[in-house]
Write a structure and sequence with these properties.
- The chain is an all-alpha fold.
- It folds into 2 domains: 4-61, lambda repressor-like DNA-binding domains (434 Repressor (Amino-terminal Domain), Orthogonal Bundle), CATH 1.10.260.40; 64-100, no CATH class.
- It is 69% helix and 0% strand.
- It is built from 6 helices and no strands.
- The chain has helices at 4-14, 19-26, 30-38, 45-55, 64-77, 84-100.
- α1 crosses α3 (30-38).
- The longest helix has 17 residues, at 84-100.
Amino acid sequence: MKNIGLIIQERRKQLNISQKELADKLGVTNSFLSKIESGKSRINLKRLSQIGDILSLDIFNYGSEIVEKWQPVIDMFEDIEVSPDDIMMLKEFLTQVKQIR
């Protein structure tokens, strides 16, 4: 199965969008986007969602391991609206829990 970086790269090229152009739209460096596309850097869900929106690509239809990994989290939030502030609070909470463990 293709890694998500290759899927992003292929779609970007299909749309004739340069790596720099996509990086600028995302507010990241060209170098960072290159690492994502080559699989050398991880990508968070927020950035993945942004890429999907820009490239008109339903990222979650690719890579069943992504869906499997995040399905419990997706299910938790399926029926509720979550603001960006809520996500940040949850992230801070999970970071603290991880430090305690």
